[in-house]
Amino acid sequence: AASMIFIFTSTFGATWLTVPWIYPAEIFPLAVRAKGNAWGVVGWSVGNGWLTLLCPVMFGAIQEKTLYIFGIANAITLPMVWALYPESNQRTLEEMDLLFAADSPWNWEAERNFKLLKEQNPDLVQAARHGQAVLDPETGLPQERKASTAGFSLDTNKAHQFEEKGRE
Known about the structure:
Shape: elongated
Region (Disordered): 135-168
Helix content: 55-70%
Pfam families: Sugar_tr (PF00083)
Strand order of the largest sheet: 1-2
Order of helices and strands: HHHHHHHEEH
Number of helices: 8
Protein name: Major facilitator superfamily (MFS) profile domain-containing protein
Transmembrane segments: 5-23, 38-59, 66-85
Subcellular location: Membrane
Radius of gyration: 22 Å
Number of strands: 2
């Protein structure tokens, strides 16, 4: 029993326990990212507090059948995550904004809409991939492109040639 507790705790800690801190930071637009991340952690904390207070009452009333309720909750979570949580791996913040532009909460609708918007906005996606800021971090609105910063001009052709030489 003790080893199973350690296995569960280490597996849960390395997987689902990180979700309230990482996922909100990836899905919220720049203008509300800090607040969205905070509310994600608040929701997780309220859920943990509620469950901590409820577990002794449940185990006292229905004993081991409480574990069936936890199993059902886990089974419900699988299709919910599949249908409602879009993949954020290897996507820029600008791409995440495009992904959540869909009117539907369903993942497949968001992906279909994302594909269309990505084709219609190649400048936004390409600029973000090359590390150029395309959105103002304070307002979340598109910002003006500047050819120079602090008196230094950036020649993108020379920068790409330099990168190519470095790879050889």
